[in-house]
């Protein structure tokens, strides 16, 4: 069992630390609203992870990935939301460029909005549901019922993801003074906007 758990932890870490839409959104909100924005975004992401993990344990995500129509609808919805967030980030760059040099952030993201963005971005990512279904069956824990195994693995993945985002938010908090500088903020918003639009387009075009 120890070898299986260690293998699962290694697989989880490989998935968690690879940059994706959630991390891009987190960086964008950190630049726009500092540590509070980053923490709120991470909280939304983690709530989304908890919901999807519970759905996977209950077998609900199997229904999603088993239905081409439902999966495509979620994929297109997630793609549209990523493009929407990317366009908003690019619009912030344009508005920031027109603002006076002494002006504050063009559109400082409120923590409540950052939380919703993190939550919706995570829930509308069909790859997360597919990840749970593809990873869990590869790790069998002897002597445990299947439901208990999946619950344990889901909880372990959630805990590792939480630890990762705690570290990321702490690091961003250390450098928030730099991130809040006008040029840096506009640069982060511009790059994150382009990346989010690209990720959304790639998700929409993916079969």
Automatic annotation (TrEMBL):
Record membrane topology: Multi-pass membrane protein
InterPro entries: LeuE-type
Coiled coil segments of this chain: none
A GO MF label: amino acid transmembrane transporter activity
Membrane-spanning intervals of the chain: 6-27, 39-63, 69-91, 152-175, 187-205
Keyword annotations: Cell membrane, Membrane, Transmembrane, Transmembrane helix
Localisation per UniProt entry: Cell membrane
Organism superkingdom: Bacteria
GO CC entries: plasma membrane
PANTHER family: ARGININE EXPORTER PROTEIN ARGO, ARGININE EXPORTER PROTEIN ARGO-RELATED
KW Ribonucleoprotein (keyword) present: no
Tagged with keyword GTP-binding: no
Name the UniProt record assigns to this protein: Lysine transporter LysE
């Amino acid at each position: 069992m120890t070898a299986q758990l260690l293998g699962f932890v290694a697989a989880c870490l490989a998935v968690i630390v690879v940059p994706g839409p959630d991390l891009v959104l987190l960086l964008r909100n950190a630049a726009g609203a500092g540590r509070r924005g980053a923490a709120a975004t991470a909280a939304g992401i983690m709530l989304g992870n908890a919901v999807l993990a519970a759905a996977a344990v209950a077998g609900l995500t199997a229904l999603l990935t088993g239905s081409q129509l439902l999966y495509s609808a979620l994929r297109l919805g997630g793609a549209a939301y990523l493009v929407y967030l990317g366009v908003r980030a690019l619009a912030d760059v344009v508005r920031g460029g027109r603002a006076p040099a002494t002006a504050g952030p063009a559109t400082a993201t409120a923590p409540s909005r950052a939380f919703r963005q993190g939550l919706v971005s995570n829930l509308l990512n069909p790859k997360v549901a597919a990840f749970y279904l593809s990873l869990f069956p590869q790790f069998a824990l002897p002597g445990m019922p299947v439901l208990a195994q999946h619950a344990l693995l889901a909880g372990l993945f959630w805990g590792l993801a939480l630890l990762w985002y705690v570290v990321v938010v702490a690091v961003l908090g250390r450098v928030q003074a730099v991130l809040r500088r006008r040029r840096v903020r506009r640069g982060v918003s511009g790059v994150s906007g382009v990346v989010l639009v690209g990720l959304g387009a790639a998700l929409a075009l993916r079969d």
